[in-house]
Design brief:
The complex is a heterodimer of chains A (108) and B (145). Chain A has 108 residues and is mainly alpha-helical. Chain A has one domain: Winged helix-like DNA-binding domain superfamily/Winged helix DNA-binding domain (Arc Repressor Mutant, subunit A, Orthogonal Bundle), CATH 1.10.10. In chain A, strands 1-2 form a two-stranded antiparallel sheet. In chain A, a hairpin with a 2-residue loop joins strand 1 and strand 2. Chain B has 145 residues and is of the alpha+beta class. Chain B has one domain: 2-Layer Sandwich (Alpha-D-Glucose-1,6-Bisphosphate, Chain A, domain 4), CATH 3.30.530.20. Chain B is built from four helices and nine strands. Chain B has a seven-stranded antiparallel beta sheet with strand order 1-9-8-5-4-3-2. Chain B starts with 5 loop residues before the first strand and ends with a helix. Classes of the chains: A mainly alpha (108), B alpha+beta (145). Chains A and B meet through helix 1, helix 4 and helix 5 of A and strand 1, helix 1, helix 2, strand 9 and helix 3 of B.
Amino acid sequence: MSKHQIDMVFSALSDPTRREVIECISEEDGVSASQLATRLPVSRQAVAKHLTALSEAGLVSGEKHGRQKLYRLTPGPMGDVMGWMERVGAEWDDRLQALQRHLASGED
Amino acid sequence: MAEGQVVERDILLPVPADEVWAAITDDDQLAAWFGAEARLELRPGGRATFRWPDGTTRNATVEVVEAERLLILRWFPFADDAHGGRRQQPVTTLSFRLEATSHGTRLRVAESATAQEAFSDDHLLARNARPDAWHNSGDLRASAV
């Protein structure tokens, strides 16, 4: 997964309703947009829009079962987000150590 | 998960806030610890440019400047390598918060990838349709040109 997709994952997860959609999906083994709409305080249309954003970020996938499309979590991208956080965290650990050394050296 | 996409570090520095502020805003001092050469236009809307030893360059927009208290930068969504290549990067907001304490200065650094106003649903959908659509985003246009 590219960095650009990580960006899409961040954007997708930044919306509180979308996080609720994810939570609902995670509790079921396959759930339709209509079922989600009955559990969340938003319209079916809004649920469909959120599902589109989550699908495009690779966080959920929909599969046709007869007339219904059932959604499941595809947790792979979360691992990429964790990887990004670890990498950026390590960068900042190094930088802040260097900042401490810099300030202790009294160069300014 | 709301705040989960944030890398946050907190450090106590045994020097006054003005010295910490100088260390995070002065180009020469930044070069001494950031890991990259820096050029910072210290005003809201100003450009910040960082160049790493391997030739990678990444730009940011200065969003908030409150002397000796708060500095916020927003990274551009790409980095350029030394050979003219361009890599997509997550758009993150980098904040430095300074707080004077009895023993010096508490510095909190946060790099957050939570969505900005430019990444509302509509923008998200538009961006998915056209990966380079950020060029048309109003708040980035000024700094992109």
